[in-house]
Amino acid sequence: MRFFRSSKFRRYRLPSQTPLYQSRLLKALSLILLVAAIGTIGYYLLEDWSLLDSLYMTIITMTTVGYGETHPLTETGRIFTMGLLIMSIGIAGYAVSTLAGFIIEGEFYRVIQGRRMDQRITRLSNHIILCGGGHTGRHIAEEFYKTQTPFVLVEHNDDTLEQVLTIGDLLYVQGDATLDETLRLAGSNGPGG
Does the predicted TM-score (pTM) go above 0.70? Predict the structure, then answer.
């Protein structure tokens, strides 16, 4: 494995929005499970139903299916059901908007594209890792691309990366080339390897 370092390389890593969306999706899922647990326990305690009946009533209430009540509800049970419905609709709205944002803003596509890129890089061996796509790095990348030399570009800057990717379908890792983790993603097996 040979390493080339462009003189324009800086030492920082750009944040990605993917962890933000993953965190929001996980939060939405957790809230849905929490409301299901609250509903089940609520019916179990307030209405003295079995856990299965309580869970069933919670699920049909949360999904607004409207099959009807499992057993007749007390006045307290009706008030509890109304609160459960309002919480469920609010959380479902949050979950759907988060998922839609994830898909619409391209994060879903970026995740899929990133996995494909990882698979392509994993299949490489004895390739060059080009660290930095600045002025010099871009010229090196162009030459490698023209001569069909297998390489992976490591670049941290969005704008620089976009400019270099106009050359063609290049394999790249967006990150700090001074970090071992980034070099591993680019296909390095360690120092000298």
Answer: no
